[in-house]
Amino acid sequence: MTSLSAFLAPIALLLPGSGPVANVESTAGLAPQETSAGEARQMSRKGWMMREAMEQIAVNRQIRIERRITIRISPAAPAAARGLMADLPRETIPTNLVERKFGKCVPVGAIAGVQPGQDNRLMLYLRDQRIISASLEKACSARDFYSGFYVEKNADGMLCTGRDKLHSRTGANCEVDRMRQLVAR
Question: Is-above-0.70 flag for pTM?
Fold first, then answer.
């Protein structure tokens, strides 16, 4: 097939009257004929398969633009973790940390780093020198988050319990069950 015929073949399929031709030899076949509604339907059904397939394709004229922002929280550097404890007086180094109630949300921009804790807890180090313990679902392990986590940005810019899922770089997806603030006793 030449390139010109390859170009014109699909256009020829779209032209009206591309159905089968009956009795080309007689001149009566070229004259307009009256057809009943049943015959017209029958002839319209006998079209080319390509033409029928093209007629059945639904045309959608909508465009959906989705904007998705993912935030990465890296593990806290050991120096940064030591820096958080450096502000405490040297002679009274707290040996015990106590959990206190904390709200259900924390601003994502306030998180400076993360470290896995015991069992299913992550330690979130905030920029204002606070430490938050975030408990994950029972089926999740904090060890999966050794290299930090990803979280999708919400309209309010907060990381909330019961709403947001943390995505580890190893493939784990866990929801935060509760948050507690760790305070020196």
Answer: no
